């Protein structure tokens, strides 16, 4: 433990000095999120002992079985965000409606979050995560419920926590992507990966091949080329089934993560505001690309706070390759009409 350790809070206090107009509220908000993640990390690692595995016997707005840890994580995010005095509106994967913070605690930010993503993996000890995006109106006024739906262009910061072999927070506030490992001996997130950048091309593709026969022809063609030695050295296949794990590996090693539309999920499965936008913001800040197959994820203007979207994100050249195949099939289908 050196005497000059850069903790997460110290790092963002320094970052905010670059902006004379900074009020310190974003740093205050990130500190609250950090606390929620520390408690969730502890709960996840002790879930088996404290009987926090299993379900609560209800379904959430997404129609998914609610796990006990989902409830705890969601309540932690809500309580800590509200008590940060920086947030006006909360959008949670676990809550059907948008939550408005009471007036005396209100701030200028909107936080959209998935408090515990990948919860189907909890009971078998596979890595899971928390994902968040922080939005703000250009004029810094407090948003009303009617102003809650903003595109990724209004994101001021985003991040994810990975509860894996270590607990790591990866955050961007628009000046690069930075990774902080939780040092449980001192209860602090310490800077370990400054300015994370994604390789221009990778050697891994990440998709749930169980839906192969459900995909569009373009996606089948893309995945087939990744396996075909005649088209170049085949890629490796990796798929955890927890978005945070699959995206973190993609940033670290390069390659592409794909969750396309399927017959079961014609608009894709992953949610725009609190899964795809935060991951797209981070991957873009790391020098990669994130699109719905046609336009950047960050350009999509939401019409519903739980809406879903197909997503293709990762190394620039890999995402461009799948976009080109999608465009080719679109062109062919237009011609054949
Ligand atoms: P599938 C987890 O349930 C999740 O929301 C993401 O974390 C993950 O990327 C995706 O769903 C996995 O979905 O259909 O492959 O099981």
Mean pLDDT: 94
How helix-rich are the residues, as a percent range?
25-40%
Structural class: alpha+beta
Q: Give the strand order of the largest sheet, numbering strands 1, 2, ... along the chain.
A: 4-3-5-6-7-8-9-10
Q: What's the CATH architecture of the largest domain?
A: 2-Layer Sandwich
CATH class of the largest domain: Alpha Beta
Number of DSSP helical runs: 7
Listing every helix as H and every strand as E from the N terminus to the C terminus, the arrangement reads HHEEHEEEEEEEEEHEHEHEEH
Outline the low-pLDDT stretches.
none
Measured by DSSP, the beta-strand proportion falls in: 15-25%
Notes on the structure:
- The chain has 337 residues and is of the alpha+beta class.
- The chain is built from 7 helices and 15 strands.
- It folds into 2 domains: 8-193, Fructose-1,6-Bisphosphatase, Chain A, domain 1 (2-Layer Sandwich), CATH 3.30.540.10; 204-336, 3-Layer(aba) Sandwich (D-Maltodextrin-Binding Protein, domain 2), CATH 3.40.190.80.
- A hairpin with a 4-residue loop joins strand 9 (178-183) and strand 10 (188-193).
- Helix 2 packs antiparallel against helix 3 (68-82).
- It is globular and about 60 Å long.
- The protein binds 6-O-phosphono-alpha-D-fructofuranose.
- Residues 117-118, 120, 208, 241-243, 246, 269 line the site of 6-O-phosphono-alpha-D-fructofuranose.
- 6-O-phosphono-alpha-D-fructofuranose binds next to helix 5.
